[in-house]
Task: inverse folding
């Protein structure tokens, strides 16, 4: 009964059907006057891929091609309108760090809060805590409210929490510009370490070097349509052509 | 029915898995208020206290509304404090999903936890505001009776009812942001139609039936009966209220879960 794939997408479609009116006050007159109340937008149009254990995937495409939508579907934040996604394992998103931080709370409180959002149990967090603080290099500041942090400190702490535990699947959305160069290197080597231990990376990046270093598979999408899925080298070549 | 049950138990398991998140969100809610203002928690007491003094003056002294042979301020506070708990939890819950939009678009966790955390934080506020009641009871020498223990079951009915409504309003407010303004208007009108500032006995008999189907009227009246009337609550009305509350909660829960998959697209 072993599933050899870790993520499998079958014919994924995402149709955003959004209300034109954002308020009830606008919606009611529109309903009676027969104006259009919705508009739709095809963000993904038939995406198919399969990632095996230990493989990593780069999602390529121009801005607005549907990459972020695909990441959201993998993270389970939004549901596909059609098709099926199967994810075997726990997904840790590294998308826009610090989303769960609250400015009034101290660094320590935020670490625990953010951990519980990621599903890390408190007991486990007690063990991980020191490692997180030293990774973020914020030993003196953990009892300060994070609103007093510089943006670099903020990002470092958020990153440290997100990579505290070896995830099954790590979603990386162009965030490797965390802190100074030295810290960036530290992050990258941490990610590499995860990969060696079997973590599947899903990377959205425009940096050719990052992609070649980390990924075996590439998925190229354009305007929601899948142009190519397969070897990362080939995907990068095709990406250069559009 | 079996599918409903299965869905419900699945969600319960998921919720249990994230119970620490609930705890941390409640903590966040509380710490935030405490840290932001100098008086912090004093507002939980001061706010209803001013409200009680002014309203007692208007309804007790000027309008001379009858009050079951106890000082009007006591008569009012046993109803107004629970009403405030209801009104603030409902009006704040409408904004919880919108306020957490940055989380909702990035990470999956059972979204109803945000609504529950808000309820819990308001419950703690309510418990603190009960200090006012305790002090009043001591000052005016209201005797303790065995009926006071009914407080807990009545409170549970109120919580079920409020949570159910909160699930509905929070989800809808995400799609139409002005639901919360509409809600504030409804809450004011609802308060007038609930015997908070006047005894239920003043309502003409032919209109009484309306109050049977307003769970808040039943709940508020029940608090008054057990705390001041020295009797059991009207069990018939309370069971109807419980029934309506459970129905609203289940209905609200499934609406919420049905819309949950779309939250990230709309927020």
Result:
């Amino acid at each position: 009964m072993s599933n050899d794939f870790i993520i499998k997408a079958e014919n994924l479609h995402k149709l955003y059907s959004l209300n034109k009116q954002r308020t009830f006050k606008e919606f009611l007159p529109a309903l009676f006057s027969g104006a259009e109340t919705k508009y739709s937008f095809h963000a993904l149009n038939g995406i198919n891929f399969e990632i095996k254990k230990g493989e990593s995937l780069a999602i390529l495409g121009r801005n607005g091609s549907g990459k972020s939508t695909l990441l959201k579907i993998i993270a389970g934040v939004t549901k596909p309108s059609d098709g099926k996604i199967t994810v075997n394992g726990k997904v840790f998103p590294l998308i826009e760090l610090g989303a769960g931080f609250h400015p009034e709370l101290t660094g320590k409180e935020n670490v625990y809060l953010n951990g519980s959002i990621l599903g890390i149990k408190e007991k486990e967090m007690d063990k991980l805590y020191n490692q997180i603080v030293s990774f973020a290099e914020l030993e003196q500041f953990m009892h300060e409210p994070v609103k007093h942090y510089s943006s670099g400190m903020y990002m470092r702490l958020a990153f440290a929490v997100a990579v505290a535990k070896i995830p099954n699947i790590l979603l990386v959305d162009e965030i490797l510009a965390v802190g100074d160069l030295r810290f960036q290197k530290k992050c990258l080597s941490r990610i590499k370490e995860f990969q060696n231990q079997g973590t599947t990376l899903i990377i959205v990046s425009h940096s050719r070097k990052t992609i070649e270093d980390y990924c075996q598979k590439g998925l190229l999408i354009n305007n929601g349509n899948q142009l190519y899925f397969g070897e990362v080298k080939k995907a990068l070549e095709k990406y250069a052509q559009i | 029915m079996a599918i409903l049950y299965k869905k419900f138990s699945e969600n319960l398991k998921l919720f249990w898995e994230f119970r620490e998140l609930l705890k941390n969100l409640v903590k966040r809610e509380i710490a935030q208020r405490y840290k932001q203002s100098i008086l912090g928690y004093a507002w939980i007491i001061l706010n209803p206290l001013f409200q009680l003094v002014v309203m007692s003056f208007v309804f007790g002294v000027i309008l001379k509304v009858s009050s079951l042979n106890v000082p009007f301020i006591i008569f009012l506070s046993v109803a107004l404090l629970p009403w405030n708990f209801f009104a603030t939890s409902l009006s704040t819950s409408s904004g919880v999903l919108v306020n957490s939009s940055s989380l909702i678009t990035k990470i999956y966790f059972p979204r109803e936890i945000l609504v529950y955390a808000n309820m819990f934080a308001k419950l703690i506020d309510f418990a603190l505001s009960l200090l006012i009641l305790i002090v009043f009871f001591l000052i005016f020498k209201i005797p303790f009776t065995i009926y006071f223990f009914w407080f807990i079951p009545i409170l549970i009915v109120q919580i079920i009812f409020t949570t159910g409504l909160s699930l509905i309003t929070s989800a809808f407010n995400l799609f139409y942001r002005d639901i919360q303004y509409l809600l504030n208007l409804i809450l004011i009108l609802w308060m007038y139609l609930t015997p908070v500032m006047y005894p239920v006995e003043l309502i003409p008999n032919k209109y009484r039936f309306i109050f049977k189907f307003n769970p808040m009227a039943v709940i508020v009246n029940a608090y008054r009966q057990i705390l001041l009337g020295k009797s059991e609550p009207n069990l018939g009305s309370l069971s109807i209220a419980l029934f309506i509350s459970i129905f609203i909660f289940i209905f609200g829960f499934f609406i919420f879960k049905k819309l949950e998959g779309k939250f990230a697209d709309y927020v």
Q: What stands out?
A: The interface with chain A takes residues 17-18, 20-21, 23-25, 27-28, 31-32, 35-36, 102-109, 175-179, 182, 261-262, 264-266 of chain B (CB under 8 Å). Chain B has one domain: 2-266. The two ends of chain B are 32 Å apart (CA to CA). The CA atoms of residues 253 and 260 of chain B lie 10 Å apart.
